[in-house]
Amino acid sequence: MKKQNFFIKNKQFTFFIILALLIVLAAILAPVLTHGIDPTAGNLKEAIMPPCKEHIFGTDKMGRDIFARVIYGARTSLTATLSVVCIIFVVGGLMGVFAGYFGGIVDTVIMRIADMMIAFPGLVLALAVAGILGANVRNAVIAIALVSWTKYARLARSLVMKIRHRDYVSAAIVTGSKTPYMITRYMLPNVLPTLVITAATDIGSMMLELAALSFLGFGATPPTPEWGLMLSEGRAYMQSAPWLMIYPGLAIFVTVVVFNMLGDSLRDILDPKNE
């Protein structure tokens, strides 16, 4: 009954979590939804076909089915995006907790590294890193994570510093509580809700950044079905075959909106200020 009351009470969250789950299910069930069509297999005889009964989203310059590539592209884009968010959540969160809890030289080193990363425009630095590592999805994930963890570190540090010198924390230290216990018992519970909200709202922006890297040639490489790469491949045919850009563009738009609204709904639920 409590679960029902929660979902009924938070109708916006319920609506967008259902949409997000449908997007994830579409990625998981890609072989079923595409009836076994190989998204990387081309047929030059069917190149640049407009949407029709056989190919509802049309085909690209290699004769590959756009619908299949969009559905399979959800796998690539979602996997890469969630990987980035998980990496920056864990790495940035832990770095911030350590900096705030230990202070001193630990805080100085971590924060100066963060300051150096922030000094450069994020996407420009990510392009440089991806260019050095080479163009593929894994390196794009590493590049985005490398320039994005700083926000989580600074946020976690500020939250830890607010409670680091509270009386109950000092009392726990005096009574012999060890550092691992202090971090897991007092620091992380105060940090996690805010970091979870931040991670949820960052999913859309991380997806856009990964798509931008692929669009510019520093992310996914052919024939990988990835939305940003599909936009890049279709821009040469923007006027003669607009469906090459319309459908992957819509996929990015819908997915980003759904996850952004889901993040906003989650923030409204978890933010203590709204209680």
Give a structural overview:
By secondary structure, the protein is mainly alpha-helical. Helix content is 73%, strand content 0%. The protein is built from 11 helices and no strands. It has helices at 2-9, 11-28, 30-33, 66-102, 104-118, 122-133, 137-163, 167-174, 179-215, 227-234, 243-270.
Overview in brief:
The chain is an all-alpha fold and 275 residues long. Helices cover 73% and strands 0% of the residues. The longest helix has 37 residues, at 66-102.
List keywords for this structure.
mainly alpha; 275 residues; single chain; 11 helices
Q: Give the quaternary arrangement of the chains.
A: single chain
Secondary structure class reads: mainly alpha
Strand tally, please? 0
Mean pLDDT score: 89
The share of residues in helices is: over 70%
**What are the segments in which pLDDT stays under 50 over at least 5 consecutive residues?**
none
The gyration radius over C-alpha positions equals 22 Å
End-to-end separation: 21 Å
Q: What is the count of DSSP helices, taking H or I runs of 4+ residues?
A: 11
Characterize the overall form.
Answer: elongated
Main sheet makeup:
none
Order of helices and strands: HHHHHHHHHHH
> Percent of residues in beta strands?
under 5%
Write the SSE topology:
Blueprint: H1 2-9, H2 11-28, H3 30-33, H4 66-102, H5 104-118, H6 122-133, H7 137-163, H8 167-174, H9 179-215, H10 227-234, H11 243-270
